[in-house]
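#struct-pred
JK: can someone run the complex with pyridoxal-5'-phosphate? inputs below
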Amino acid sequence: MTLYQNTLEFAQAADLKDPLRSFRDAFYLPQTPNGGPTVYLCGNSLGLQPKQTEQFLKEELDSWRALGVDGHTEGTHPWLPYHEFLTQQMAEIVGAKDHEVVVMNGLTANLHLMMVSFYRPTDKRFKVVIEKDAFPSDRYAVESQLRFHGYDPKEALIQWAPPNGEELCNFADLEDLMTAQGHQVALVLLGNTNYYTGQAYPIDRITNLGHQHGALVGFDLAHGVGNIMPELHKNGPDFAVWCTYKYLNSGPGSLGGVFVHERHAQDKTLPRFTGWWGHNKTTRFNMRHDFDPIPGAEGWQLSNPPILSMAAIRASLDLFHQASMTRLRAKSIKLTGYLEYLIDDLSSDKIRVITPRNPLERGCQLSLQIKDSNKLLHDALTERGVVCDWREPDVIRVAPTPMYNSFEDVFQFVEHLKEVVA
Ligand SMILES: *Cc1c(COP(=O)(O)O)cnc(C)c1O
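RT: done, C-alpha coordinates with the ligand placed:
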Protein backbone atom coordinates (compact mmCIF):
# COMPACT_ATOMS: atom_id res chain seq x y z
CA MET A 1 0.00 0.00 0.00
CA THR A 2 1.31 3.43 -0.82
CA LEU A 3 0.07 6.98 -0.49
CA TYR A 4 1.68 7.94 -3.75
CA GLN A 5 1.07 7.41 -7.47
CA ASN A 6 3.45 7.77 -10.36
CA THR A 7 1.35 10.16 -12.43
CA LEU A 8 1.37 13.85 -13.22
CA GLU A 9 -2.27 14.01 -12.11
CA PHE A 10 -1.34 12.71 -8.68
CA ALA A 11 1.50 15.24 -8.35
CA GLN A 12 -0.74 18.12 -9.37
CA ALA A 13 -3.49 17.01 -7.01
CA ALA A 14 -0.95 16.79 -4.17
CA ASP A 15 0.10 20.37 -4.93
CA LEU A 16 -3.50 21.54 -4.75
CA LYS A 17 -3.84 19.93 -1.32
CA ASP A 18 -0.56 21.42 -0.08
CA PRO A 19 -1.30 24.08 2.58
CA LEU A 20 2.05 25.74 1.82
CA ARG A 21 1.62 25.91 -1.96
CA SER A 22 1.29 29.70 -2.05
CA PHE A 23 4.87 30.16 -0.83
CA ARG A 24 6.19 29.12 -4.22
CA ASP A 25 4.82 32.39 -5.60
CA ALA A 26 6.81 34.30 -3.01
CA PHE A 27 10.04 33.33 -4.82
CA TYR A 28 11.66 34.03 -8.17
CA LEU A 29 12.23 30.76 -9.99
CA PRO A 30 15.14 30.88 -12.45
CA GLN A 31 13.95 30.46 -16.04
CA THR A 32 15.19 28.09 -18.72
CA PRO A 33 16.42 29.59 -22.02
CA ASN A 34 13.00 28.73 -23.51
CA GLY A 35 11.26 30.76 -20.85
CA GLY A 36 9.73 28.09 -18.61
CA PRO A 37 10.65 27.75 -14.95
CA THR A 38 13.55 25.46 -14.17
CA VAL A 39 13.02 22.45 -11.98
CA TYR A 40 15.10 23.96 -9.19
CA LEU A 41 16.30 21.31 -6.75
CA CYS A 42 19.43 23.07 -5.58
CA GLY A 43 18.24 24.90 -2.48
CA ASN A 44 20.85 22.93 -0.52
CA SER A 45 23.48 24.92 -2.36
CA LEU A 46 21.88 28.31 -2.93
CA GLY A 47 18.29 29.05 -1.94
CA LEU A 48 16.13 31.12 -4.27
CA GLN A 49 15.42 34.80 -3.96
CA PRO A 50 12.23 35.77 -2.11
CA LYS A 51 10.36 38.43 -4.07
CA GLN A 52 10.16 40.59 -0.97
CA THR A 53 13.93 40.68 -0.45
CA GLU A 54 14.27 43.67 -2.77
CA GLN A 55 11.80 45.65 -0.65
CA PHE A 56 13.64 44.84 2.58
CA LEU A 57 16.95 45.92 1.01
CA LYS A 58 15.40 49.03 -0.43
CA GLU A 59 14.16 50.11 2.98
CA GLU A 60 17.75 50.18 4.25
CA LEU A 61 19.11 51.86 1.14
CA ASP A 62 16.41 54.50 1.59
CA SER A 63 17.32 54.98 5.25
CA TRP A 64 20.96 55.38 4.32
CA ARG A 65 20.11 57.83 1.54
CA ALA A 66 17.76 59.91 3.70
CA LEU A 67 19.43 59.71 7.07
CA GLY A 68 23.13 59.05 6.57
CA VAL A 69 24.73 58.21 9.88
CA ASP A 70 21.47 58.82 11.73
CA GLY A 71 20.19 55.58 10.22
CA HIS A 72 21.95 53.90 13.12
CA THR A 73 19.35 55.24 15.50
CA GLU A 74 16.44 56.33 13.30
CA GLY A 75 14.43 54.82 10.49
CA THR A 76 11.99 51.94 10.72
CA HIS A 77 14.73 49.48 11.63
CA PRO A 78 17.67 51.35 13.16
CA TRP A 79 21.01 49.73 12.43
CA LEU A 80 22.46 49.79 15.94
CA PRO A 81 20.18 47.03 17.20
CA TYR A 82 19.50 45.63 13.70
CA HIS A 83 20.76 42.12 14.42
CA GLU A 84 18.19 41.91 17.21
CA PHE A 85 15.38 42.08 14.64
CA LEU A 86 16.52 38.70 13.34
CA THR A 87 17.00 36.90 16.61
CA GLN A 88 13.55 35.70 17.54
CA GLN A 89 12.67 34.23 14.16
CA MET A 90 16.09 32.64 13.79
CA ALA A 91 15.75 31.12 17.25
CA GLU A 92 12.37 29.65 16.24
CA ILE A 93 13.95 27.92 13.26
CA VAL A 94 16.66 26.17 15.28
CA GLY A 95 14.58 25.61 18.42
CA ALA A 96 16.58 27.89 20.71
CA LYS A 97 15.95 30.61 23.27
CA ASP A 98 16.43 34.09 21.88
CA HIS A 99 19.56 34.84 23.87
CA GLU A 100 21.19 31.64 22.60
CA VAL A 101 21.22 32.86 18.99
CA VAL A 102 22.96 35.58 17.03
CA VAL A 103 23.48 36.27 13.33
CA MET A 104 27.04 37.32 12.44
CA ASN A 105 30.05 36.71 10.18
CA GLY A 106 30.43 33.79 7.78
CA LEU A 107 30.03 30.17 8.78
CA THR A 108 33.69 29.20 8.82
CA ALA A 109 34.67 32.33 10.74
CA ASN A 110 32.04 31.45 13.33
CA LEU A 111 33.32 27.91 13.54
CA HIS A 112 36.74 29.30 14.46
CA LEU A 113 35.26 31.66 17.03
CA MET A 114 33.35 28.80 18.62
CA MET A 115 36.44 26.59 18.72
CA VAL A 116 38.40 29.36 20.42
CA SER A 117 35.88 29.11 23.25
CA PHE A 118 34.92 25.44 23.16
CA TYR A 119 38.03 23.62 22.00
CA ARG A 120 40.30 24.00 24.99
CA PRO A 121 42.76 21.14 24.82
CA THR A 122 44.76 19.86 27.77
CA ASP A 123 47.62 17.35 27.81
CA LYS A 124 45.18 14.53 28.52
CA ARG A 125 42.23 15.74 26.50
CA PHE A 126 43.05 17.27 23.15
CA LYS A 127 41.33 15.27 20.40
CA VAL A 128 38.50 16.39 18.12
CA VAL A 129 35.99 14.02 16.53
CA ILE A 130 34.62 14.91 13.08
CA GLU A 131 32.88 12.93 10.33
CA LYS A 132 35.15 11.23 7.87
CA ASP A 133 33.29 12.96 5.09
CA ALA A 134 33.18 16.39 6.74
CA PHE A 135 32.73 19.39 4.48
CA PRO A 136 36.22 20.59 3.44
CA SER A 137 35.96 23.99 5.11
CA ASP A 138 35.05 22.38 8.43
CA ARG A 139 37.97 20.01 8.19
CA TYR A 140 40.41 22.81 7.32
CA ALA A 141 39.11 24.86 10.23
CA VAL A 142 39.50 22.00 12.70
CA GLU A 143 42.95 20.99 11.45
CA SER A 144 44.18 24.55 11.67
CA GLN A 145 42.87 24.85 15.22
CA LEU A 146 44.68 21.65 16.16
CA ARG A 147 47.93 22.94 14.70
CA PHE A 148 47.41 26.32 16.31
CA HIS A 149 47.37 24.56 19.68
CA GLY A 150 50.47 22.56 18.76
CA TYR A 151 48.87 19.23 17.85
CA ASP A 152 49.34 17.10 14.79
CA PRO A 153 45.99 16.34 13.12
CA LYS A 154 47.29 12.83 12.42
CA GLU A 155 47.20 12.23 16.14
CA ALA A 156 44.53 14.61 17.36
CA LEU A 157 41.85 14.34 14.67
CA ILE A 158 39.53 11.34 15.01
CA GLN A 159 37.19 10.49 12.20
CA TRP A 160 33.80 8.88 12.63
CA ALA A 161 33.73 6.78 9.49
CA PRO A 162 31.08 4.64 7.83
CA PRO A 163 31.74 0.88 7.81
CA ASN A 164 34.02 -0.20 4.97
CA GLY A 165 32.39 0.13 1.56
CA GLU A 166 29.37 2.02 2.94
CA GLU A 167 28.47 5.70 2.91
CA LEU A 168 26.42 6.17 6.06
CA CYS A 169 27.73 6.52 9.60
CA ASN A 170 26.43 4.30 12.43
CA PHE A 171 25.80 5.73 15.86
CA ALA A 172 27.09 2.49 17.40
CA ASP A 173 30.49 3.11 15.80
CA LEU A 174 30.61 6.55 17.38
CA GLU A 175 29.81 4.95 20.74
CA ASP A 176 32.66 2.47 20.27
CA LEU A 177 35.00 5.23 19.26
CA MET A 178 34.11 7.25 22.35
CA THR A 179 34.43 4.21 24.61
CA ALA A 180 37.96 3.71 23.33
CA GLN A 181 39.16 7.31 23.12
CA GLY A 182 36.50 9.46 24.80
CA HIS A 183 38.76 10.29 27.76
CA GLN A 184 41.05 12.10 25.30
CA VAL A 185 38.32 13.87 23.32
CA ALA A 186 37.92 17.60 23.96
CA LEU A 187 35.34 18.29 21.26
CA VAL A 188 32.89 16.39 19.06
CA LEU A 189 32.09 18.51 16.00
CA LEU A 190 29.72 17.12 13.40
CA GLY A 191 27.77 18.41 10.45
CA ASN A 192 24.04 17.88 10.40
CA THR A 193 22.77 16.92 7.93
CA ASN A 194 25.78 15.62 6.01
CA TYR A 195 26.24 17.69 2.86
CA TYR A 196 27.13 14.69 0.72
CA THR A 197 24.94 11.82 1.87
CA GLY A 198 22.06 13.84 3.31
CA GLN A 199 22.27 11.79 6.51
CA ALA A 200 20.94 13.58 9.60
CA TYR A 201 22.57 12.52 12.85
CA PRO A 202 20.70 12.29 16.17
CA ILE A 203 21.68 15.55 17.85
CA ASP A 204 20.30 14.51 21.25
CA ARG A 205 22.07 11.16 21.41
CA ILE A 206 25.36 12.50 20.10
CA THR A 207 25.27 15.37 22.57
CA ASN A 208 24.59 13.00 25.47
CA LEU A 209 27.31 10.67 24.35
CA GLY A 210 29.89 13.45 24.07
CA HIS A 211 28.92 14.92 27.42
CA GLN A 212 29.00 11.51 29.15
CA HIS A 213 32.61 11.22 28.09
CA GLY A 214 33.44 14.71 29.27
CA ALA A 215 33.72 16.30 25.82
CA LEU A 216 31.99 19.39 24.51
CA VAL A 217 29.74 19.02 21.48
CA GLY A 218 29.12 21.34 18.51
CA PHE A 219 27.19 21.03 15.26
CA ASP A 220 27.54 22.59 11.85
CA LEU A 221 23.96 23.01 10.64
CA ALA A 222 24.79 24.40 7.19
CA HIS A 223 22.61 21.71 5.64
CA GLY A 224 20.30 21.33 8.60
CA VAL A 225 18.98 24.81 9.25
CA GLY A 226 15.64 25.46 7.57
CA ASN A 227 15.59 21.76 6.67
CA ILE A 228 15.44 19.58 9.77
CA MET A 229 14.36 20.76 13.23
CA PRO A 230 17.48 20.65 15.35
CA GLU A 231 15.79 21.68 18.64
CA LEU A 232 19.08 23.03 19.86
CA HIS A 233 18.06 24.16 23.31
CA LYS A 234 16.35 20.91 24.21
CA ASN A 235 18.95 18.66 22.59
CA GLY A 236 21.64 20.58 24.36
CA PRO A 237 24.83 20.82 22.27
CA ASP A 238 27.27 23.44 23.52
CA PHE A 239 27.25 25.38 20.28
CA ALA A 240 26.16 25.30 16.66
CA VAL A 241 26.91 27.32 13.54
CA TRP A 242 25.17 27.60 10.18
CA CYS A 243 24.93 29.66 7.02
CA THR A 244 21.85 31.40 5.66
CA TYR A 245 22.31 31.16 1.91
CA LYS A 246 21.31 27.50 1.50
CA TYR A 247 17.86 26.54 2.81
CA LEU A 248 17.44 29.96 4.42
CA ASN A 249 17.33 31.77 1.06
CA SER A 250 19.21 34.87 2.21
CA GLY A 251 21.45 35.42 -0.78
CA PRO A 252 24.94 34.40 -1.87
CA GLY A 253 27.56 34.62 0.86
CA SER A 254 25.09 36.00 3.36
CA LEU A 255 25.84 36.02 7.08
CA GLY A 256 25.92 32.96 9.30
CA GLY A 257 24.16 32.08 12.54
CA VAL A 258 25.50 30.95 15.88
CA PHE A 259 23.96 29.14 18.83
CA VAL A 260 25.61 29.06 22.23
CA HIS A 261 23.74 27.01 24.79
CA GLU A 262 22.32 28.88 27.76
CA ARG A 263 24.61 26.99 30.14
CA HIS A 264 27.50 29.09 28.79
CA ALA A 265 25.61 32.39 28.62
CA GLN A 266 26.98 33.99 31.76
CA ASP A 267 30.45 32.50 31.71
CA LYS A 268 32.82 35.44 31.42
CA THR A 269 35.85 33.20 31.98
CA LEU A 270 35.52 31.41 28.62
CA PRO A 271 38.41 32.33 26.35
CA ARG A 272 37.12 34.14 23.30
CA PHE A 273 38.24 36.42 20.53
CA THR A 274 36.45 39.67 21.13
CA GLY A 275 35.29 42.83 19.41
CA TRP A 276 33.27 45.86 20.35
CA TRP A 277 29.94 44.48 19.14
CA GLY A 278 30.13 41.77 21.78
CA HIS A 279 30.61 44.33 24.53
CA ASN A 280 27.95 45.42 27.01
CA LYS A 281 25.58 47.60 24.99
CA THR A 282 25.20 50.27 27.66
CA THR A 283 28.93 51.08 27.75
CA ARG A 284 29.95 50.08 24.22
CA PHE A 285 30.37 53.65 23.05
CA ASN A 286 32.31 54.83 26.05
CA MET A 287 35.23 53.11 24.38
CA ARG A 288 37.17 53.05 27.65
CA HIS A 289 36.02 50.01 29.55
CA ASP A 290 37.56 46.60 29.81
CA PHE A 291 35.71 44.07 27.73
CA ASP A 292 32.43 43.12 29.33
CA PRO A 293 30.68 40.48 27.21
CA ILE A 294 26.95 40.66 26.56
CA PRO A 295 25.48 37.54 28.19
CA GLY A 296 24.51 34.88 25.66
CA ALA A 297 25.42 34.42 22.01
CA GLU A 298 25.57 38.17 21.31
CA GLY A 299 28.71 38.32 23.42
CA TRP A 300 30.62 36.61 20.61
CA GLN A 301 29.98 39.37 18.07
CA LEU A 302 32.96 41.22 16.71
CA SER A 303 31.92 43.93 14.28
CA ASN A 304 28.96 46.06 13.49
CA PRO A 305 27.25 43.91 10.89
CA PRO A 306 26.46 44.42 7.17
CA ILE A 307 22.91 45.70 7.31
CA LEU A 308 22.07 44.92 3.67
CA SER A 309 22.85 41.26 4.20
CA MET A 310 20.82 41.26 7.38
CA ALA A 311 17.91 42.88 5.55
CA ALA A 312 17.89 39.94 3.13
CA ILE A 313 17.89 37.55 6.08
CA ARG A 314 14.94 39.39 7.61
CA ALA A 315 13.02 39.03 4.36
CA SER A 316 13.60 35.29 4.39
CA LEU A 317 12.94 34.75 8.09
CA ASP A 318 9.62 36.49 7.67
CA LEU A 319 8.58 33.76 5.21
CA PHE A 320 9.82 30.99 7.49
CA HIS A 321 7.86 32.51 10.33
CA GLN A 322 4.69 32.53 8.22
CA ALA A 323 5.20 29.01 6.94
CA SER A 324 6.52 27.62 10.29
CA MET A 325 9.14 24.91 10.53
CA THR A 326 6.59 22.41 11.80
CA ARG A 327 4.51 22.72 8.63
CA LEU A 328 7.58 22.88 6.40
CA ARG A 329 9.01 19.74 7.91
CA ALA A 330 5.70 17.90 7.57
CA LYS A 331 5.55 18.82 3.88
CA SER A 332 9.21 18.00 3.41
CA ILE A 333 8.75 14.44 4.65
CA LYS A 334 5.95 13.92 2.10
CA LEU A 335 7.78 15.65 -0.75
CA THR A 336 11.03 13.75 -0.32
CA GLY A 337 9.04 10.58 0.31
CA TYR A 338 7.44 11.16 -3.09
CA LEU A 339 10.84 11.57 -4.72
CA GLU A 340 12.00 8.34 -3.11
CA TYR A 341 8.84 6.52 -4.21
CA LEU A 342 9.21 7.66 -7.83
CA ILE A 343 12.85 6.63 -7.94
CA ASP A 344 12.04 3.24 -6.48
CA ASP A 345 9.22 2.92 -9.00
CA LEU A 346 11.75 3.26 -11.83
CA SER A 347 13.25 -0.02 -10.60
CA SER A 348 16.46 1.02 -12.26
CA ASP A 349 19.49 -1.01 -11.26
CA LYS A 350 21.59 2.01 -12.19
CA ILE A 351 20.19 4.32 -9.55
CA ARG A 352 20.89 3.89 -5.86
CA VAL A 353 19.68 6.13 -3.06
CA ILE A 354 22.59 6.73 -0.69
CA THR A 355 20.60 8.80 1.79
CA PRO A 356 18.97 6.95 4.71
CA ARG A 357 15.51 5.53 4.01
CA ASN A 358 14.18 6.58 7.38
CA PRO A 359 12.71 10.12 7.06
CA LEU A 360 13.91 10.88 10.59
CA GLU A 361 17.49 10.30 9.52
CA ARG A 362 17.47 12.77 6.67
CA GLY A 363 16.25 16.18 5.62
CA CYS A 364 14.83 16.98 2.19
CA GLN A 365 17.89 15.97 0.17
CA LEU A 366 18.36 12.63 -1.54
CA SER A 367 21.80 11.76 -2.85
CA LEU A 368 21.58 9.45 -5.83
CA GLN A 369 24.42 7.35 -7.04
CA ILE A 370 24.09 6.77 -10.78
CA LYS A 371 26.18 3.79 -11.74
CA ASP A 372 28.50 4.01 -14.77
CA SER A 373 27.69 7.69 -15.18
CA ASN A 374 29.81 10.78 -15.52
CA LYS A 375 29.27 14.52 -15.61
CA LEU A 376 27.53 14.23 -19.00
CA LEU A 377 24.49 12.92 -17.19
CA HIS A 378 24.35 16.07 -15.11
CA ASP A 379 24.87 18.18 -18.24
CA ALA A 380 21.92 16.42 -19.86
CA LEU A 381 19.72 17.21 -16.88
CA THR A 382 20.85 20.84 -17.00
CA GLU A 383 19.96 20.93 -20.68
CA ARG A 384 16.44 19.90 -19.74
CA GLY A 385 16.07 22.71 -17.24
CA VAL A 386 16.81 20.70 -14.10
CA VAL A 387 19.02 22.42 -11.54
CA CYS A 388 20.64 20.00 -9.12
CA ASP A 389 24.22 19.32 -8.28
CA TRP A 390 26.87 16.86 -9.24
CA ARG A 391 29.52 15.37 -7.00
CA GLU A 392 32.35 13.34 -8.41
CA PRO A 393 32.53 10.53 -9.18
CA ASP A 394 28.87 9.61 -9.75
CA VAL A 395 26.46 11.29 -7.33
CA ILE A 396 23.72 13.82 -7.91
CA ARG A 397 22.22 15.60 -4.96
CA VAL A 398 18.57 16.52 -5.26
CA ALA A 399 16.94 18.75 -2.69
CA PRO A 400 13.22 19.42 -3.04
CA THR A 401 12.70 22.20 -0.52
CA PRO A 402 9.27 22.39 1.06
CA MET A 403 9.27 26.18 0.89
CA TYR A 404 9.08 26.55 -2.87
CA ASN A 405 9.25 23.14 -4.54
CA SER A 406 6.15 21.31 -5.67
CA PHE A 407 5.18 17.68 -6.09
CA GLU A 408 5.09 18.42 -9.80
CA ASP A 409 8.76 19.54 -9.67
CA VAL A 410 9.62 16.18 -8.16
CA PHE A 411 7.57 14.33 -10.77
CA GLN A 412 9.18 16.27 -13.63
CA PHE A 413 12.65 15.66 -12.24
CA VAL A 414 12.19 11.90 -12.15
CA GLU A 415 10.76 11.90 -15.69
CA HIS A 416 13.88 13.70 -16.90
CA LEU A 417 16.16 11.45 -14.90
CA LYS A 418 14.49 8.36 -16.34
CA GLU A 419 15.08 9.59 -19.88
CA VAL A 420 18.70 10.65 -19.42
CA VAL A 421 19.65 7.46 -17.61
CA ALA A 422 18.05 5.31 -20.33
C1 LIG B 1 28.09 25.27 2.83
C2 LIG B 1 28.95 24.78 3.93
C3 LIG B 1 30.03 25.53 4.40
C4 LIG B 1 30.41 26.83 3.76
O1 LIG B 1 31.16 27.64 4.61
P1 LIG B 1 31.20 29.22 4.42
O2 LIG B 1 32.09 29.67 5.53
O3 LIG B 1 29.79 29.73 4.52
O4 LIG B 1 31.76 29.51 3.07
C5 LIG B 1 30.78 25.02 5.46
N1 LIG B 1 30.45 23.84 6.03
C6 LIG B 1 29.41 23.09 5.59
C7 LIG B 1 29.09 21.80 6.25
C8 LIG B 1 28.64 23.54 4.53
O5 LIG B 1 27.64 22.79 4.08
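RT: quick notes.
The CA atoms of residues 281 and 302 lie 13 Å apart.
Residues 106-108, 135, 137-138, 191, 195, 220, 222-223, 243 surround pyridoxal-5'-phosphate (CB under 6 Å).
JK: thanks, will look after standup
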